[in-house]
Write a structure and sequence with these properties.
By secondary structure, the chain is mainly alpha-helical. It contains 11 helices and 3 strands, in the order αααααβββαααααα. A 3-stranded antiparallel sheet has the order 1-2-3. Helix 3 runs antiparallel to helix 4, helix 4 packs antiparallel against helix 6 and helix 4 (about 90-100) packs across helix 8. The relative contact order is 0.11.
């Protein structure tokens, strides 16, 4: 890959500045002509459309939105690395595992309390009460994760689900730092951040057959259009459906 030097960056910026100044001059000249012709809004719109047709300008192809994510294998490496960061304190691994498997936002995660974790019964779940725009939701968790959380709590019934040495909640920044340390330990080259775990579990769930409407509820999206982006980038799901049709 070619190294980008400060000189080359300055050269690119200079070209952009020149292009912008040329456009500004063209806009000024166009404004003079339109003002002289006393064009109203509809007339100016008509002129723009006619010029586009004369120049045979087509709109750019719609770019397919792709969500950044970790592969299932990268997730496994990241979580294993988090447990290795401090073997005497496996809570770090458990924190990232809970963050990933619940798909909660980091701002929601750091506010989870002990009483929000319903770990007994056939359907263990966590109650998310610090969601966007004041909404709340229940998020299912795996029985194995529920058991690990029970061991972590060791009978504790108050406070935050995960507490610092000062018995206070972790900050979002502390979780970000933990993820960075784990990703470095795991040898993951891409930038890994808390919301990437949310993207990753959402994409994996969709690829493995979770209906879009259920994924919407799991993630706490108010609008299905927000969840739709995962379907647009889910090549694995499309391929699986295709093979199922012809299989």
């Amino acid at each position: 890959m070619e190294r980008v030097t400060p000189l080359k960056l300055a050269e690119v910026r200079g070209k952009k500045a020149k292009a912008n100044s040329e456009l500004e001059a063209l806009i000024a000249e166009t404004a003079k002509l339109w003002r002289k012709a006393h064009l109203d809004y509809d007339q100016s719109k008509y002129v723009v459309e006619r010029v586009r047709r004369l120049l045979e300008l087509d709109p750019p192809a719609k770019r397919r939105r792709v969500v950044e994510r970790l592969s299932p294998e990268e997730v496994e490496r990241l979580l294993a690395a988090a447990y290795r960061l401090n073997p005497r304190k496996p809570v770090f691994g458990l924190m990232l595992k809970t963050l990933f498997y619940t798909g909660v936002r980091v701002s929601e995660f750091v506010h989870l309390r002990v009483q929000d974790a319903h770990l007994d019964g056939e359907a263990p779940h966590v109650y998310v009460h610090r969601a966007k725009k004041g909404s709340v939701r229940y998020v299912p968790i795996l029985p194995a994760l529920a058991q690990e959380l029970r061991v972590h709590l060791a009978g504790r019934v108050r406070g935050y689900l995960f507490e610092s040495n000062r018995h206070d909640r972790y900050s979002a920044r502390a979780i970000q730092k933990l993820i960075q340390q784990a990703s470095k330990e795991a040898g993951i080259g891409k930038r890994v951040y808390p919301h990437l775990l949310r993207h990753s579990v959402a994409q994996i769930l969709l690829d493995r057959g979770m209906p879009l409407e259920q994924l919407q509820k799991f993630l706490g999206h108010r609008d299905l259009k927000t969840t739709q982006i995962y379907a647009e980038s889910s090549l694995e799901q499309v391929g699986e459906s295709y093979r199922r049709v012809w299989g």
